[in-house]
């Protein structure tokens, strides 16, 4: 079935639909990771977006339920150059096209993703439309009529409705090897859960929770609208601000509650959590031209000069000039000097803009989970 990708500036790309049919709209962005399409598709931070994968072939290793980063797909649509006709992976239980069909996600293949990516790098991320039923002119208009990312609150769509404790697997197991005749997973013992953690779920990725559990945290997740008083009533040892979608500046109701928590308990934020902490400190955020999305972003730790290659997924950044004097920038992006991490000089609070838990991406920065545990130990001593 023929499909069209239309951008709000009038540019269109023709291709072939897979998965679902119909029309979908959202901000189009690109991710440069060569693998990890399933983790990207199920990452709640992509809510409201149509994702372009720059790698040429997608779907070659299928879908494996254990690798989801949430309960299901979160993207509005997927743009790729070629859909693999074969899903070859002993762990997979479904191919990408049938997964999209089951969840009513619209994909388009046969697109010149190199040309699209170069266009977005020049013109910036923009609203878009994928359709199997509209004319090019109608699709362009649908893109123009869709909601912009700036000012949008998608957190309410992905945050947990009820408070719950994380009981999911935490990846301390050995992957089975067909060559050795092993068919099941072999669990390794998790460490003692020493610290009570309350995590604001703004669209949290499962792999963050896996890393937190492996670092010794007993995790309770709460809705994004949970008040500071309700959080403190749970008497946590630490508070976590998760990743999530949308414009951080549109989340005033969250900024207010997080500001009340400063100094009360140690706080750690990742991605949107970092941006929310920016606003709680009195700073501001701005929209990047085309964002950072991929697994090869170099970040320098200003505390020791070390450089990590990091996984990133964000379209907004902290304005360094807006930060008060009692906030120290600890990490910067070597590509464009944007703020990638900071800490408060008085309150036990720090955050990073990138994803130390990867999924997909390198594991250079997983030490932050241990740093958070150490901060809690210092706060309680």
Topology:
Elements: E1 2-7, E2 12-19, E3 23-31, H1 37-41, E4 49-53, E5 57-58, E6 77-79, E7 82-83, H2 96-103, E8 106-109, H3 113-123, E9 126-131, H4 136-145, H5 155-158, E10 164-165, E11 173-174, E12 186-187, E13 195-200, H6 206-214, E14 217-222, H7 228-233, E15 238-241, H8 252-261, E16 267-270, H9 272-280, E17 285-301, E18 307-318, E19 327-333, E20 339-344, E21 349-352, H10 367-380
Parallel strand pairs: 3-4, 4-6, 5-7, 6-8, 13-14, 13-15, 15-16, 16-21
Antiparallel strand pairs: 1-2, 1-9, 2-8, 3-9, 10-14, 11-12, 17-18, 17-19, 19-20, 20-21
Helix pairs in contact: 8-9
CATH fold category name of the largest domain: Rossmann fold
SS-based structural class?
Answer: alpha/beta
Overall geometry: globular
Using the coordinates above, name the CATH class of the largest domain. Answer: Alpha Beta
The CATH fourth-level homologous superfamily of the largest domain: Class I glutamine amidotransferase (GATase) domain
Structural write-up:
- Helix 8 (252-261) crosses helix 9 (272-280).
- Strands 10-14-13-15-16-21-20-19-17-18 form a ten-stranded mixed beta sheet, with helices on both faces. A seven-stranded mixed barrel has the order 1-2-8-6-4-3-9. Strands 5-7 form a two-stranded parallel ribbon.
- Helices cover 23% and strands 31% of the residues.
- With 381 residues, it is of the alpha/beta class.
- The termini are far apart.
- The protein has two domains: 2-145, Glucose Oxidase, domain 1, CATH 3.50.30; 155-171 and 184-380, Rossmann fold.
- Strand 13, helix 6 (206-214) and strand 14 form a beta-alpha-beta unit.
- The protein is globular and about 65 Å long.
